[in-house]
């Protein structure tokens, strides 16, 4: 007696139907999760760039500027006196994000002491996504050179992630 192995066409169609239904249910949540992750990564990258600029200003004993790129997909850290680019960052994923600064400032200059130079400086930058309205992060830069990332959507008073 010959024994058959494998799946019948009906079993295969049922399995594919179940898979398609599950994929349809998971897809919207996955897209929102990816959008939130992109926002978080962009805000963290901006924090890293600001920290790098401040550290380089202290290390070099010279003014160093952090600036957002004009094309909106990255940032640069440059030494003010020489114009040397100390670090550049670019990520094409930023094309799907919105970067909004308080005022029109797109750069922050750190003095050799690590504090912000006076004048129009980048003091607050909000990173948000077109795909998920709830996904946003705010990066605050304070005059003393300190930086903080927070979530504007959090309203609980004692939550440390709150702005």
TrEMBL record:
Transmembrane segments: 12-31
Gene3D superfamilies: minor pseudopilin epsh domain
Residues in General secretion pathway GspH domain copies: 42-145
Keywords: Cell inner membrane, Cell membrane, Membrane, Methylation, Transmembrane, Transmembrane helix
Family annotation (InterPro entries): N_methyl_site (IPR012902), Pilin-like (IPR045584), T2SS_GspH (IPR022346)
GO cellular component, one term: plasma membrane
Topology with respect to the bilayer: Single-pass membrane protein
Subcellular location: Cell inner membrane
Keyword flag Cell membrane: yes
UniProt entry tagged with the keyword Glycoprotein: no
NCBIfam families linked to this entry: IV_pilin_GFxxxE
Family: Belongs to the GSP H family.
Protein name in UniProt: Type II secretion system protein H
Organism: Ramlibacter montanisoli
Record lineage: Bacteria, Pseudomonadati, Pseudomonadota, Betaproteobacteria, Burkholderiales
């Amino acid at each position: 007696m010959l024994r058959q192995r494998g799946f019948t066409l009906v079993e295969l169609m049922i399995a594919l139907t179940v898979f398609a239904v599950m994929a349809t249910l998971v897809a919207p949540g996955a897209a929102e999760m990816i959008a939130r992750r992109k926002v978080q990564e962009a805000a963290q990258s901006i924090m890293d760039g600001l920290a790098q600029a401040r550290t380089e200003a202290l290390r070099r004993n010279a003014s160093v500027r952090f600036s957002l790129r004009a094309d909106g997909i990255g940032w640069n850290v440059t030494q003010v006196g020489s114009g040397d680019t100390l670090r550049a960052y670019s990520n094409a994923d930023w094309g799907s994000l919105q970067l909004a600064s308080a005022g029109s400032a797109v750069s922050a200059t750190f003095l050799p002491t690590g504090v912000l130079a006076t004048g129009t400086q980048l003091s607050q930058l909000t990173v948000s996504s077109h795909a998920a309205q709830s996904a946003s992060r705010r990066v605050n830069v304070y005059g003393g050179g300190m930086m903080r990332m927070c979530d504007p959507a959090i309203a609980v008073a004692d939550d440390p992630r709150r702005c």
